[in-house]
């Protein structure tokens, strides 16, 4: 089959790789219908996260089950399924707690020896626990397929950030980061009943989407000017719940400074310097909590799925560029240059 | 009157200062019956927190109301009352939320121009909101008075740490710090239904007290050996809830490394380098939350008071040395040299 590989920073290729096959009785093989490129893939693309030359990549995908191992009972050939961005065994202590990202036998698509999502097919370990079945008729609905694909990562991650930040009915929320995760954070906060949602961002296409997703205010300033603008919107106090969806020192510093005393930051931006942006003295004096991390989206898919299916939430507009498998390298370039928000891949 | 003042690092004096008097109609003047020395006072004592020469000190006290301003309605001359370690107005947005430490008109005893608790009397701003009435007959019960005094800080702070760490029924808790706050954290965790409480500490008098307060295990090792010991006690996973009651880089690093994936650190040690002990990458990968800060003990006093009055919890054993007002400098020395755990002052 053909799949995307990364050979060096900025060197993405689409090439022939071995066909996936059942290796363990709990495996399934899935034909990818839709995949996409994640903002976090850009850390590898830019060389800021190390990869072995030729390693697979892509951790967001949905598709049709092609083959199952002997012990797979909940899923069969022909099922339409979505995969979370990590696989998990479903039975360890952490999976029992819903923290599937800490699964004792879990792993990340594209890590050494495993398939990535940006390819024609994927071998899925622990298929019963990892995959979630979708209604078969969704396969013929392009918009719905795109919306469902976001459950593999960005929608669940935005939801995790909102939960971590303590979003609830009547809260004021601020969202740092106008990428797909930040925008899904807006959507998640709206779904959870936030009264006011302040989106920080300077790219109008993105902030327009934030408004469409439920943001009530947009702050286009950056740094201290952004902090002042958020305070002005919040009686000088800041937001109860702040979503940090970038992961840099500056984004975390902004997040700390715009959180209301007693509030919380839900952080889901993969840390790339953001630890330095934490002023623990400020957080101590103001009782600001920090919660989040890698999102256990497998646990969230069943919670969010009904709302995606009935249209209560529609994250599909985060995709603004569609490419075939051969177009994946162009897709990375477009996201790296921020000419695309999020790239859909139709292998 | 006579009160404790700090003139330079290690230079504590007890000297004549102006008698406190009602300055605003919401003030009260309180005659101090019991005060004490806090571990956090040692930061000033050692010169690690700056103080003006001659500044008052002491933020934990209870006593009898001597005089009230015209607008004070809930408290009258002769009432036995306990003060939390900060005053608060009781009406601002933060006080309404219970976050009295962020009160818009709040302040800290001993800060410039205010009285400190380690003296004969104190002017109390916003007396109705700040002070909490105690049963009059407690004044004749030495043990109970000591137990009630801990509500001014250490017991409420230990409770705040336990709440921040997410202690609940059946949880496994680890406590970093064997000072009075850490020990009160053990007591708070026990009160909140923790199943297992691991106290980290090397001083047997303190760990014995931890066991008396409800600890089920003691880890005497430090650093990586302590982390390994906690993991051994917890199926290799760490504790659901970790109380960080020190505030140094090492204590925070230990706290992060002994927290179970998906767990939380309740941090109440005043940060003195602890920010550097936070590895955000680890916290991200393992979904470890950080919650805490300066404890809104005013909110906790009414919650904890019934349990202290009926003996459900008895934090009084944290005091292991009693001095008169003239003995306060000796008390600081004893705590600095760790020959005393916590010093009670009877002015």
Automatic annotation (TrEMBL), chains A, B:
This is Zinc-dependent alcohol dehydrogenase family protein. It comes from the Bacteria. SUPFAM superfamilies: GroES-like (SSF50129), NAD(P)-binding Rossmann-fold domains (SSF51735). Its cofactor is Zn(2+). It holds the Pfam family ADH_N. Residues 25-135 form the Alcohol dehydrogenase-like N-terminal domain. The lineage of its organism: Bacteria, Bacillati, Actinomycetota, Actinomycetes, Kitasatosporales. The keyword Zinc applies. Residues 180-304 form the Alcohol dehydrogenase-like C-terminal domain. The keyword Cell inner membrane does not apply. Keywords: Metal-binding, Zinc.
């Amino acid at each position: 089959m053909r799949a995307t590989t990364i050979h060096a920073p900025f060197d993405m290729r689409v090439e022939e790789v071995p066909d996936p096959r059942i290796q363990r009785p709990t495996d399934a093989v899935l034909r990818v219908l839709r995949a996409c490129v994640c903002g976090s893939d850009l850390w590898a693309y830019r060389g800021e996260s190390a990869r072995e030359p030729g390693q697979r990549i892509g951790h967001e995908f949905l598709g049709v089950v092609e083959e199952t191992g002997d012990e797979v009972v909940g899923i069969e050939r022909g099922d339409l399924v979505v995969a979370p961005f990590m696989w998990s065994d479903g039975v360890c202590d952490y999976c029992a707690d819903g923290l599937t990202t800490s699964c004792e036998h879990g792993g990340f698509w594209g890590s050494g020896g495993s398939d990535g999502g940006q390819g024609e097919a994927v071998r899925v370990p622990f298929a019963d626990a990892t995959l979630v079945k979708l209604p078969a008729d969704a396969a013929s609905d392009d918009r719905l397929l795109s919306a469902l694909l976001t459950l593999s990562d960005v929608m669940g991650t935005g939801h995790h950030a909102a939960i971590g930040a303590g979003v609830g009915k009547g809260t004021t929320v601020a969202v740092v980061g106008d990428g797909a995760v930040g925008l899904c954070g807006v959507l998640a906060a709206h779904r959870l009943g936030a009264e006011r949602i302040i989106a920080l961002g300077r790219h109008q296409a993105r902030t327009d989407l934030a408004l469409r997703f439920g943001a009530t205010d947009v702050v286009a300033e950056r740094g201290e000017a952004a902090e002042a603008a958020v305070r002005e919107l919040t009686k000088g106090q800041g937001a109860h719940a702040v979503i940090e969806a970038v992961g840099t020192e500056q984004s975390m510093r902004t997040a700390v400074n715009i959180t209301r005393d007693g509030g919380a930051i839900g952080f889901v931006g993969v840390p790339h310097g953001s630890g330095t942006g934490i002023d623990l003295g400020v957080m101590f004096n103001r009782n600001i909590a920090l919660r989040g991390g890698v999102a256990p989206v497998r646990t969230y898919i069943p919670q969010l799925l009904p709302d995606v299916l009935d249209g209560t939430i529609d994250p599909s507009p985060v995709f603004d560029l569609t490419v075939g498998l051969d177009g994946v390298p162009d897709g990375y370039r477009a996201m790296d240059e921020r000419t695309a928000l999020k790239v859909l891949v139709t292998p």
